[in-house]
Structure formats: structure tokens, C-alpha cells
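Please go through the sequence and C-alpha cells given here and tell me how the chain folds. Record follows.
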Amino acid sequence: MRAAFLKTPGLQWNCAVAGNLLLGLAADVSCDAILGGRVSLHQPRKGHRAGTDAVLLAAAAPANISGLMLDIGAGAGTAGLIVAMRSPLSRLGLVEDDPLVAALAKENLALNGLADRARVHEADIFSSKARRAAGLVPGEAALVITNPPFADPDRVRASPYAGKRSAHVMQKSGAEILTDWVRACLALLAPGGTFLMIHRPEALPDILTACGQRIGAVSVLPIHPRQDKAANRILLRGKKGSRAPFALAPALVLQEQGRFTPRVEAIHLGEALIDW
């Protein structure tokens, strides 16, 4: 789901410079302001672009994090940037394996004044060796958030744009690849730390299986595009080492009469969080 972006001439000019430096062509990169202008993003004009999923993921995180927060499969860094900017005592790690997108994420850290307490880890999340080589320490993060690729490559027609394809489609088919993704995330989470994921509802059984006994206090929040439509996203939250029972949170409805509800509009403007 794509959020509405605010654009300013100044940000567009800065992005033209970044486009020349990063991708060789200024036209390849846009610069967008989200959350009512609170966060600025360099991102590809074609391929995967930040949207409502990232905004909701960030809004579902605790209001103020201290310690290390990791955004796994961060793309250009949207969700992690949002949480870090409202959490001045946090340290941020953006984990991304696409070199071009990782370069944009580094630009976004500087653009938003976070370079002194954040870094990009360019790593294959599935490889423990690659994670360690990129500076990711097991069991260190107070918060791990993730918006993984949703699609099974055997069931979808992948985008011709490499960045969009890698953001939307898992590298391999089958439930085991999602299991490996979740378990890699949880390996980086500290005892007592919070895990937060956005995904499609049909993936919930596989996600819960992957979590196993690694986390407790699991809560699932369904997200409905409209009141009369089935949920097409879920947020899942859990705490490592907790023994608290499973809970189903009240649903979030995104739109009424063809536009965001006042609550969801406030979330997109950075004026509200998801209280669950």
C-alpha cells in the first residue's frame, strides 16, 4: 500500500544531486517528504517505493525506543527512520542486501540528521556469517521491525524492475523461506526485546510456526482496507522470552468513503501512533 507523499522544490533539487552521485541519472531518484514533512526520503522513481505498509509498521512500534533498533529488509529505510526520529535515545541499523538501495538508505540517514547514531548493514539476512561480517551482533537489538517480501516467486509475475522485484518477492519459494527470515530476525533480538512485522493474513500460520517458543505475548492486529472488506495486512508483535498468551487486537480500518479515516490520516501525518 502506498502512502501519499508531500513534495517540495528544495527536496527535489537535493535529490537530483543524489541521483547523479548514486545512480548516474538524476531522473532515477525522487526525493519525497512523508509524515507531514517530518521525514525526507531519496528513493527510486521506478521499482519499490515506500508506502502505507512502512508507515503503519513504524506507527505500531513503541513510542520511544532506547538502545539498538534494527529494520530488517529496510529498503530505503522508511520505517526505521520514522521510529528513530521519534526516539532520540535509540541507535538504528538498516539491514538491506541491494547495494543501490542500501546507498539510498545511507543518503537518507544523512538527509534526516541520523548519521551519527545510525548505520546501514549491507547483508544477506539469511546468512549468519554475512550478518556477522556486516556488524550485526546476535541478541543485541531492543527492537526488530520488518516488512519482508510478501510474494512467493512460484505464484506471482515478478516486476521487471530489480529493486521492486527483490522488495516484493522472496528469493525462494515455499514457507521455509519466510521461516528462515523470521528466525534470522529473532536471532538478532535481545532477551525481552520486541519483534514487529507487517505481512499478509494468509502468512500468519507460517509466521506463528516460525516464531515457535522464541517469543511470547504475541499480538496480531488485522488491517482492513475498508469496513466491508477482509483484512489484507496484519501487524504481529511479540516479546522475546515472554510467556504471556496470544492476543488478537482490535482491527484497524484504513478508509471510509474513499479516503483515509481521521485516525489513519493522523498516523500518516505523524500525529498519532497505533495504540495496541
